[in-house]
Amino acid sequence: MRILLWHVHGSWTTAFVQGVHRYFVPVLPDRGPNGLGRARTWDWPASAEEVPVDDLRRLDVDVVIVQRPIELDCLVPAWLGREPGTEVPTVYLEHDARRGDAERTRHPAADRAGVRIVHVTWFNRLMWDTGASPVRVIEHVDLYQRLMQAPENLDYVIPPGQAALRREGRRATVLTYLSMVHTVLEAAETLDADIDVIDLRWLDKASFDWETVAASVRKTNNVVIVEQGAQGTSYGAWLADEIQRRLFDWLDQPVQRVMGGEASPSISKVLERAAAAGPEEVTEALQSLLRHAA
Prior knowledge:
By secondary structure, the protein is an alpha/beta fold. The chain folds into two domains: 2-142, Rossmann fold (3-Layer(aba) Sandwich), CATH 3.40.50; 164-291, Rossmann fold (3-Layer(aba) Sandwich). Helices cover 27% and strands 18% of the residues. It contains eight helices and twelve strands. The chain has helices at 10-16, 69-80, 122-127, 180-191, 210-220, 235-246, 269-275, 279-291, and strands at 2-5, 22-27, 48-52, 63-66, 90-94, 115-119, 135-137, 164-167, 172-176, 195-199, 223-226, 256-258. The strands form two sheets. Strands 3-2-1-4-5-6-7 form a seven-stranded parallel sheet. It has a five-stranded mixed sheet with strand order 8-10-9-11-12, with helices on both faces. α4 packs across α8 (279-291). The chain is elongated.
């Protein structure tokens, strides 16, 4: 396919252009925010081509990917000379959650004929009002590689504010979420670890299931928080602090943490593995925790 997209989010764009298609990236002489062109600090393939703005109207593209309202409302009609959705297939990739009064806010692409909206989380899908526009959610890619049982009731929803106890034990509590739930369960099975594994599911402070977490900590007296993401944006930093404030008297040792490195994942497989926590780190953390557990 011949895909037109703007270079907006560097890491995401770098990952996206590694595919098998041809990618056309608008470039301005000053390389401003609406015409960054190819990345100059990342390794992009030759299939990602810079296109001067004046040449866009002569460009034959199969689909346009937009990520900002200005691209949808101004840049595609003015520079490409075609109306998004009706004259050229268009996907609006929404990276962000809506800020502020989200439940009363309409998405910029709501009710736009022929424009498909893609969200990166189900939370964004819920909170953005997209009207009649078709919507697709593409979430954590690690979960796509796993087979999981679907609920028989197609109207099933996760009960708000309820974590899930995925494995029961007595010596330690493991708190985790998303793809790391499977990683922790596999490590626990390999080690035959006598531990509670709690899938947090709801991460916002208002919905956090302190009842389930506190009951487990009072039983095991040892806690490790496992997450895949980078250390700098770690959710576990807040959670560890909160546990030690709320449950200090039941802890036999400081709260332990497993997380990624200082930087976010790169397109390089080597750097990606170094940046993200994996099975080896989880296994090592469980072994260390259990050595000091009663």
